Amino acid sequence: MTEVLGLEDLSYRYPNGQPALSGVSLSIEDGECVAIVGPNGAGKSTLLLHLNGLLQPTSGRVRLLGQVLNGDNLKWARQRVGLVFQNPDDQLFCPTVFDDVAFGPLNMGCPDEEVRWRVRSALDAVNLAGFGARSPLHLSVGEKKRAALATVLAMSPELLALDEPSANLDPGGKWALVSLLKGLSLTRLIVSHDLEMVRALCPRVIIMDRGRIVADGPADEILADEALLAAHSLAPGVPVSLI
User: Fold this and answer.
1) What residue ranges define each of the domains in the chain, with the CATH number in brackets?
2) 3-class secondary structure for the chain?
3) Across the beta sheet with 67-68, what order do the strands follow?
4) What is this structure's pTM?
5) Taking a C-beta distance cutoff of 8 angstroms, is the pair 219, 205 a contact?
6) What backbone phi and psi angles, to 5 degrees, belong to 15?
């Protein structure tokens, strides 16, 4: 299979010198759906911010579709990594849903007809057809989450990276989102504290703790290992704090 994402000995220190990532290496192949779980301060969200160059590593490399990310190809990378933040209000800032979803394609230089097609296709994909004229301020939390997802799907990314997608959703909203994400064929990397969601979505699970990968394997094996989960504050039934 084709590798979509490769991290090679990735390390990152905050400006104050505090380490956040220490020697993280992993490979994700085309079509995989992978979960990253771990306790508060594990470095999960910090890792996501490296995938399209929002953060630059202190050392190590990020490889996307065979290209090493650097200062010259970040625009290219940001068109291919769709990063969905935990708080949808961080991605919805325009007067209407249409404007938010159209923002990325317009900045790519797509012609108007293609922009309209991308917006319509993305809203259809997240079950928000007909929502284009609405204000994001008047959407429910679940609708905002799906609208934020549409803003990245409109860019036709190769990799979809989601930070805590089920946060603040009621059970109905969570399972609707699970169904939606299951129906997507692109490569997905999901950071979540929701082990129930992880179990339903991801055949592969990575555990991070203190900036390192401490386990990486089939979800059935990782999530059945109660001693491993407990050692990293992931005991069944105990919510995991996120950074």
Assistant:
1) 3-85+158-231 (3.40.50.300)
2) CCEEEEEEEEEEECCCCCEEEEEEEEEEECCCEEEEECCCCCCHHHHHCCCCCCCCCCEEEEEECCEECCCCCHHHHHHHEEEECCCHHHCCCCCCHHHHHHHHHHHCCCCHHHHHHHHHHHHHHCCCCCCCCCCHHHCCHHHHHHHHHHHHHCCCCCEEEEECCCCCCCHHHHHHHHHHHHCCCCEEEEECCCHHHHHHHCCEEEEEECCEEEEEEEHHHHHHCHHHHHHCCCCCCCCCCCC
3) 19-29, 3-13, 59-64, 67-68
4) 0.92
5) yes
6) -55, -25
The pairing of strands 59-64 and 33-37 is unpaired
Task: Write the pLDDT tens digit of every residue in 187-224.
Answer: 999 999 899 999 999 999 999 999 999 999 999 999 99
In angstroms, rounded to a whole number, what is the distance separating the alpha carbons of residues 120 and 20? 39
Q: How far apart are CA 108 and CA 115, in angstroms?
A: 10
